[in-house]
Prior knowledge:
The complex is a heterodimer of chains A (114) and B (109). Chain A has strands spanning 4-7, 10-13, 19-25, 31-38, 42-51, 54-57, 65-66, 76-78, 87-94, 104-105, 109-113. Chain A is mostly beta strands. In chain A, strands 2, 4, 5, 6, 9, 10 and 11 form a 7-stranded mixed β-sheet that branches. The radius of gyration of chain A is 13 Å and the shape is globular. The relative contact order of chain A is 0.33. Chain B has 109 residues and is mainly beta. Chain B has strands at 4-6, 11-14, 19-25, 33-38, 45-50, 55-57, 60-65, 70-75, 84-91, 97-99, 103-108. Chain B is globular and about 40 Å long. The chains are: A mainly beta (114), B mainly beta (109). The A-B interface holds A 31, 33, 35, 40-45, 48, 50, 56, 58-59, 88, 90, 97-100, 102-103, 105-108, 110 and B 31-32, 34, 36, 41-46, 49, 87, 91, 95-97, 99-102.
Amino acid sequence: EAQVTQNPRYLITVTGKKLTVTCSQNMNHEYMSWYRQDPGLGLRQIYYSMNVEVTDKGDVPEGYKVSRKEKRNFPLILESPSPNQTSLYFCASSYVITSTDTQYFGPGTRLTVL
Amino acid sequence: RKEVEQDPGPFNVPEGATVAFNCTYSNSASQSFFWYRQDCRKEPKLLMSVYSSGNEDGRFTAQLNRASQYISLLIRDSKLSDSATYLCVVDSGYSTLTFGKGTMLLVSP
């Protein structure tokens, strides 16, 4: 089954404790991205990657890191999480190198930082 | 900053009603337009792309007006299962997409 998977789905952590949210897709997609969704603010892009070893900042990259060592994986790293990073996070992928193709979203990761 | 604006709603309609949502965008260079559907804090899913000539998919019709920079979504014969948040999405021209904040639709029996 074609899909985007994220782990963990739910996470409660404390300020400053490094964490990684994994994202994997099995559709051989070139383009992958991370979004966060907050009430009243909608979906905002954190980082995106157009290919292996190619990453770029989105609208809200502060406090996050990403890597794209393999085509299928695009982990999101929070080196020192803070309460303002409490949010619902979505990973997405699409086939072509631009973003104009259909985006397939993972099921989301609900993160709480205390 | 490229913006996409939507009426947040909620739009409360009875089953069988016709309802329309509009969305305005600020980037005149945008070439790609979409409507996504999102159920209560689940992942967004593509509902339909929006083409210049307008397009229809069953009960759903999408229109694009480039001159006025807005897109619309019309839902005919609303079903209970249409209750969701509808996200207007526009390409920003920088290999990224800009999402509107969404319009909530509630269809009641």
